[in-house]
Design a protein that fits this description.
The protein is mostly beta strands. It contains 2 helices and 9 strands; from the N terminus they run αβββββββββα. It has one domain. The chain is globular, with a radius of gyration of 15 Å.
């Protein structure tokens, strides 16, 4: 699935997260803080990553740096930015699975990796709790895929 971040996309992400974007060529950085909790994270969106011949992956890499962790979503194929939820979901869809990196306005983040796409439109109330959170978090992405149903 081909996807390129446009300048409007980067501005939309900044608007939802409530912070400015700092761009340097293909690197776009957002720094988030949440005073009450003391959380601080940096979100980086790197576009047009040069890949060796033969690699079939979108050339976008989304990374989050926290005080205690580093999370990365290579091959980002899209995103959903929600003002209402105060979060941006970056996702990578490949081979019947979806992975998602959720970045919250309050400097929180979550990573859901290799979620079977059948779970995106499943009844989450019937899923085990270990799978329900991934199903709920990534279910917003199913509306972008015409082949899910």
């Amino acid at each position: 699935m081909a996807f390129d971040f446009a300048a409007d996309d980067l501005d939309r992400i900044a608007g939802v997260l409530g912070v400015p974007v700092r761009s340097d060529g293909t690197l776009h950085r957002y720094e988030l803080t949440h005073g009450p909790s003391g959380r601080r994270i940096a979100l980086e969106v790197r576009t047009a990553v040069a890949l060796p011949d033969g690699l079939n992956q979108p050339p976008n890499v989304v990374s989050v740096y926290t005080q205690a962790a580093f999370l990365q979503l290579p091959g980002c194929t899209g995103f959903i930015a929600s003002d209402e939820l105060g979060e941006v979901i970056f996702f990578a869809r490949r081979g019947g699975t979806t992975s998602g990196l959720v970045v919250e306005r309050e400097a929180g983040c979550s990573l859901y990796a290799h979620v079977d796409e059948r779970l995106l439109n499943a009844d989450f109330t019937r899923l085990p709790p270990e799978l329900a959170s991934a199903s709920i978090a990534l279910s917003l992405t199913e509306t972008l895929f015409s082949d899910l149903g």
